[in-house]
Amino acid sequence: MPLAPIPPSAFAKIAVGIDRPEDVVVSRDGRVFASDHQCAVAEIFPDGTFKRLGPKGGAPNGVNLDRHGRVLIANFGIYDKEEGPLERFDPASGLRETLVAEVGGKRLTSANYPVVDRAGNIWCANSTHAETWPQALDGRADGFIFVLRPDGSSQIVAEGLKFPNGLALSADDGFLYCAQTSGGDVMRFPVLAGGRLGKGERYGPVLGKLQGRDEPPVAKPDLGYTDGVGMDVLGNLWVCLPGADKVVAITPSGEAVTVIHDPTGEIVNHPTNVTWGGPDLMDLYIGSIRADYVLKARSPVAGQPHVHQMA
Q1: DSSP state for residue 83 in the 8-state scheme
Q2: Which alpha helices (H) appear in 69-222, and where do they start and end?
Q3: How deeply is 147 buried, as exposed, middle or buried, from its count of CB atoms within 10 A (0-12, 13-18, 19+)?
């Protein structure tokens, strides 16, 4: 089935009252989790209510799951001027633990989004070492991607990036895609043996304009700051543009197609991540850095399953 636009009216607001639900992840058995700054992670139930799980701490940003159902949490420290480690929370035991706080001699200050491949490598972006938001998005290239391997070793595998943000893997784990927020684009890296990355290149076009400090204001629909990304089963890479209240998809041919846009921002308000769930992986969930709710709708295309959703 080809891509088709999803109107804002098709979305239902769920988990109303949640605190900064940057990201959502769905387990193989259908449990839905979202980031929440008042706990380790929030679980969203089928009736749209939610429950906070685990102790509060840090600034949960991107979340994902491993094969054992444990929630991986990237803490975005710049949000509250704290450290930004990669953590793991086990909903079954209630244990919350730090996996990586420092890599390559650099403290993690803004871990952003983790993704797991079939080999068990956890890839994660650290967006910046800037201290404030204006500095973070000024185009500085101090961000990096690191990996935590199954043997416990960690390493910076790509650096010199402009606020690396959401990550996604190709269907065969052959490529890692990374949104560069202050580049207004997406980078693609070959995944090499041993949990390493090859040289990156831009994937698809620049997705909009960026706001320079001394430049005229950019119209909201044209803002190209990229955030979370997600891959569907047709190989389209969905990219959130929170400043534009828009989600676009980069097709395998490199074309950018708008799939969601809310000019009013009343429903789709600063979308930051997309993910799929349900038995057919066609339940679409969208997180946000501004809204106090998560959005849910039916997708025109099924999502590509994450490792934790595979049999």
Answers
A1: -
A2: 133-136
A3: buried
Give the pLDDT confidence score for residue 287 in this predicted structure: 98
Would strands 122-126 and 143-148 be described as parallel, antiparallel, or unpaired?
A: antiparallel
CA 129 – CA 144 distance, rounded (Å):
10
Q: Are 39 and 52 in contact (CB under 8 A)?
A: yes
Of 229, 258, 264, nearest to 246 by C-alpha is 258
The four Cα atoms 209, 129, 101, 290 give a dihedral, to 10 degrees, of -40
**How far, in Å, CA of 145 to CA of 126, rounded?**
6
- The rounded distance, in Å, linking the Cα atoms of 272 and 285 is 11
Collapsed DSSP state (helix, strand, coil) of residue 308: helix
Q: Give the pLDDT mean for 58-70.
A: 96
E strand map for 172-233: 175-180, 185-192, 196-197, 201-202, 229-231
